[in-house]
Amino acid sequence: MAFQEAIKHFTALMDEVNEQQRATFQNMHQGYPSDAIVRFLKAREWNVPKAHKMLMDCLNWRLQNEIDNILSKPIVPVDLYRAVRDSQLVGVSGYSKEGLPVFAIGAGQSSFDKASVHYYVQSHIQINEYRDRIVLPAAAKKHGRHIGTCIKILDMTGLKLSALSQIKLMTIISTIDDLNYPEKTDTYYIVNAPYVFSSCWKVVKPLLQERTRKKVQVLQGCGRDELLKIMDYSSLPHFCRREGSGSSRYSSSPGSDNCFSLDHPFHQQLYNYIKQQARGHIPPQPTKQGSFHVSLPDPDPEGVKIAETIESQLIKLEDQKTSENTSKLSHPMNSLKIYSE
């Protein structure tokens, strides 16, 4: 009953927004305003004033940064976009048996080193907007019911101590999601987790809100058998298709089977859609060529704490590794072996 009262109160507050805010809110909720309201309420533990402020901040962020037009801003030339795709590994491999889109993320091998931060942020927001405005409504139409969330499978293959350099950008991206796209992921599946991840997960897990913690499932190996319970084999990301598949960046048949690649049908459809939208969108004034700059949010204190915890754990692991290597080198038998080689 309290939940229904909160939704009713929040809905009444949303009746007071101005025309511009209402228009961008419609782009967000795609005909399901109550669903959007519930997502923001969940993100603020059903506190109506806090959830209302969060949504209003989100609407103003969308207006100030022209997020409604971001799907008409292609990253060009195509070689630059391919470089972004090769270093920010994300794609859609298929759908769960319930119709939820399956997003695959190569967390361990995304290097984010082929373009500026703004291109990676632009690409991430474009994928979010395409998911919310095109992918989810299409899935809902196909299944005859509202589908407002997705599944994410994070491949940790190749995660190394050097991930430290990527923490800042990943914190920016996760903050954008937390503040403006809350509660869009049903479950996070972690696969191919090396020791580095396991070690970091132990210290990060207690810092997460219980709501988030419940969504994360760390699967054994590539997770194939567990994932086949909720999706068909054809929807499995390439890195989940067999044990020891080796790399999330390449599969045995690169290109259309590799859901990270620009050649994959999802990315082809997304890129063609953005190019088509660009042709039909006439800007009010000439725009200079370059990345679509979005104001980067101040990180959430909770997110900062998590990032700092991961950072200190990675440094600790690095020190431990250095110490072990020094210890091995200082052992007389090892010195003799090295000398003889």
From TrEMBL:
Residues 316-341 are annotated as: Disordered. Residues 77-237 form the CRAL-TRIO domain. InterPro entries: CRAL-TRIO_dom, CRAL-TRIO_dom_sf, CRAL/TRIO_N_dom, CRAL/TRIO_N_dom_sf. It holds the Pfam family CRAL_TRIO_N. SMART domains: CRAL_TRIO_N, SEC14. Residues 323-333 have a biased composition (Polar residues). CDD domains: SEC14 (cd00170). This is CRAL-TRIO domain-containing protein. It comes from Dendrobium thyrsiflorum (Pinecone-like raceme dendrobium).
